[in-house]
């Protein structure tokens, strides 16, 4: 048996997953992304999505979670040209470019979703 879910129904399933930390907006963005990539007949696998993608408040939040700090480790890992004069907007733009080149980045109002790599 196959059920057809709306975007809001699929997002609600993701939000209700007790082992994931999706916000409603993040879940909707992820479902819309999957529908765009795989089509309307794609299967919803909440466990696979929880394992493959993570949601963050911002690009800088992702960098801190991934490297432990935005400045020193991040610079050493991917050699950004950051110094004390580099503002948050410049850092975010470089992080956006880095993520877009190396993984899946889904941006939505209130946060981002990144495919874990």
Largest sheet: 3 strands, antiparallel
How far the N terminus sits from the C terminus, by CA atoms, comes to: 33 Å
Indicate the radius of gyration in whole angstroms. Answer: 16 Å
Q: Could you state the order of secondary-structure elements as H and E?
A: HHHEHHHEE
How much strand? 5-15%
Shape: elongated
Helical proportion? 40-55%
**How many extended strands?**
3
Structural domain count: 1
Please list the strands of the largest sheet in the order they lie side by side: 1-3-2
List low-pLDDT spans.
none
The number of helices is: 6
Mean pLDDT: 88
Which structural class is indicated by helix and strand composition? mainly alpha
Give an overview of the whole structure.
This protein has one domain. 54% of the residues lie in helices and 11% in strands. It contains six helices and three strands. The protein has a three-stranded antiparallel sheet, sandwiched between helices. The longest helix is centred in the N-terminal third of the chain and has 15 residues. The model has no long low-confidence stretch (mean pLDDT 88).
Task: List key phrases describing it.
117 residues, mainly alpha, three-stranded antiparallel sheet, 6 helices, 11% strand, elongated
Task: Please render the helix and strand layout as text.
Elements: H1 7-16, H2 24-38, H3 46-52, E1 53-56, H4 59-67, H5 72-78, H6 88-102, E2 105-108, E3 111-115
Antiparallel strand pairs: 1-3, 2-3
Helix pairs in contact: 1-2
């Amino acid at each position: 048996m196959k059920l057809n879910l709306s975007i809001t129904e699929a997002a609600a399933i993701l939000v209700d997953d007790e082992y994931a930390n999706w916000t409603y907006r993040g879940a909707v963005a992820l479902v819309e992304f999957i529908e765009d990539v795989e089509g309307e007949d794609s299967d919803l696998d909440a466990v696979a999505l929880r394992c493959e993608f993570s949601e963050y408040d911002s690009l800088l939040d992702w960098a801190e979670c991934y490297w432990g700090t935005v400045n020193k480790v991040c610079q050493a890992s991917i050699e950004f040209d950051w110094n004390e004069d580099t503002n948050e907007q410049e850092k975010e733009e470089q992080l956006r470019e880095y993520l877009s080149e190396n993984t899946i980045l889904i941006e939505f109002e209130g946060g981002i979703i990144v495919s874990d790599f």
